[in-house]
Design a protein that fits this description.
Chain lengths: 260, 235
């Protein structure tokens, strides 16, 4: 497994798109730092962009990578390797190179801007870990989609829709439900609904860390009120762990039962 | 060594293999023939564990291959289409496979045989189709395995490379290996094959020596004999 990881990682970090991805975040962070000298503001702007962009790029690039590696997977499958080690290795190669270019992109400019100041650093760490979690979750979803749909066009369609659903449509439905049932107590419903959207979870965790209640939205406020920032964070981290483990198991299950 | 029992496989509504039973004991070169969609590649992929059969069992050295992968140490397989990670060089891919399999290799001999010396440090994305096919060969043939499986080996090879391939297959055959080939080039089969397995609509139509097939169809050329079978069994 580690050997496959090694080679797919090598292949990925030499991919032009990984450089473009890194360069984009590098320029973005630099621009934000120039525009506003406030570290917190920069982190908030970055959060908003990362929350939308990493899932999109993760899911699209993951699907694309899987489809273009189809023959290579067949080559590996003719070797004395288990399916589990092939897919785990390839997936880790993709997710880690992806996370690496993202982290490098935002970290290099921030390094020159008092990153290691104690208060700033923990916020930065939360932002980085959440962008890694989102990359990991959405490239897993990408693998699941690509394993499930043999037809590339269909696969891309489902990938884009999945992103649209989690990034935009879900919030719309959420708001609508809150409006419809506004006469009832909504705490449990809103926490329950957030659990099913990794993007929301990541957003709330970052904002809990930043402690800006006005931006947290209803669920964030509910979480903070009932669980406190600390317990709220632990709750979210636990749920996000499930968001990684369950899709990963689903991915291996699909890979084990697929014809190549 | 390879025993296949009552193998069934459906892709959607398309029933590709309809209960194939087969024993491949004989050494030498066996050509798996059949019209398009007759199940040649599916049969090979089932043996390699890439396609999971709906029904039936496959044994290698009397061990059921289901949920096993160690048996593939004994198999060299060359797929129909060569497609490798684009940003790696051929040398890196060769080293990767050596790294993965950990068995004795003779890649230097094959690099010379196919004249690949100058192509090794180029990225895969920059290689021509024929050169990629040669790399594909090299990767499949570089270890000493008792079984060699080649899927459409003559695709995209120049005449010299094809000649070298035939010579190489003869040497490997002398070592007592089992070589399975699928192809549509009948002259290639006549030249190299000892045995023929002819698949028709997911069943085995013929399994035996090349000369027996010619005799059966009362023809002197394989191409004519195959054409005769297909004419009497319109697909």
């Amino acid at each position: 497994m580690w050997k496959i990881f090694k080679y797919s990682f090598y292949d990925m970090i030499r991919n032009r798109w990984m450089f473009i991805y890194m360069a984009f975040f590098l320029l973005l962070t630099l621009a934000l730092l120039f525009l506003s000298n406030d570290f917190t503001k920069v982190i908030i702007s970055l959060t908003n962009i990362i929350l939308v962009l990493t899932p999109l790029i993760g899911i699209l690039f993951g699907t694309m990578y899987f489809y273009s590696s189809k023959e290579f997977i067949e080559l590996l499958m003719a070797q004395p390797l288990s399916r589990k080690s092939i897919f785990t290795g390839m997936y880790l190669g993709l997710a880690s190179s992806f996370s690496l270019s993202l982290i490098l992109g935002i970290s290099i400019p921030l390094l020159f801007y008092g990153l290691f100041n104690a208060a700033n650093f923990s916020v930065y760490l939360v932002l980085c870990s959440m962008s890694v979690v989102l990359s990991v979750v959405f490239s897993l979803i990408a693998f699941i989609i690509a394993l499930r749909f043999e037809n590339k066009i269909k696969g891309f369609g489902v990938a884009i829709f999945t992103w649209l659903f989690f990034a935009i449509i879900y919030d719309g439905i959420f708001l609508l439900l809150l409006l419809l049932f506004k006469d009832y107590p909504l705490e449990n419903l809103s926490i329950g609904l957030t659990v099913f959207n990794p993007i929301d979870l990541a957003r709330i965790l970052i904002l809990l860390k930043l402690d800006i209640s006005t931006m947290m939205g209803y669920t964030g406020a509910v979480l903070q009120k009932f669980l406190g920032s600390g317990m709220g964070s632990i709750f979210i981290i636990t749920i996000l762990t499930f968001w990684i483990i369950l899709p990963f198991m689903r991915m291996l299950h699909l890979a084990k039962n697929k014809d190549f | 060594m390879i025993r296949i029992e009552n193998l069934h496989k459906k892709f959607g509504k398309n029933e590709v293999l309809k209960g194939i039973s087969l024993n491949i004991e004989h050494q030498g070169i066996t050509a798996i023939l059949g019209p398009n969609g007759s199940g040649k590649t599916t049969l090979i992929k089932s043996f390699l564990g890439m396609v999971l059969p709906d029904k039936g069992e496959i044994y290698y050295k009397n061990i059921n291959i289901k949920n096993h992968f160690e048996y593939r140490n004994d198999i060299a397989h060359m797929p129909q289409i060569a497609h490798f990670p684009e940003n790696l060089t051929s040398r890196e891919i060769i080293n990767m496979i050596i790294d993965l399999r950990k068995s004795k290799t003779n890649e230097n001999y094959l690099i010379k045989l196919f004249g690949l010396e100058n192509e090794l440090d180029k990225k895969m994305v920059n290689l021509s189709g024929g050169t990629r096919q040669k790399v594909n060969f090299l990767i499949a043939l570089m270890y000493e395995t008792p079984i060699i499986i080649l899927d459409e080996p003559s695709n995209g090879l120049d005449p010299l490379a094809l000649l070298r391939l035939k010579e190489h297959l003869q040497t490997e055959k002398q070592k007592g290996k089992q070589i399975l080939i699928t192809t549509h080039i009948m002259s290639f089969v006549e030249e190299v094959a000892d045995n023929i397995i002819f698949l028709l609509e997911g069943n085995i139509y013929f399994n035996g020596k090349l000369s027996e097939l010619l005799e059966l169809q009362n023809e002197s050329k394989l191409e004519r004999a195959i054409a005769k079978i297909l004419e009497t069994h319109p697909v």
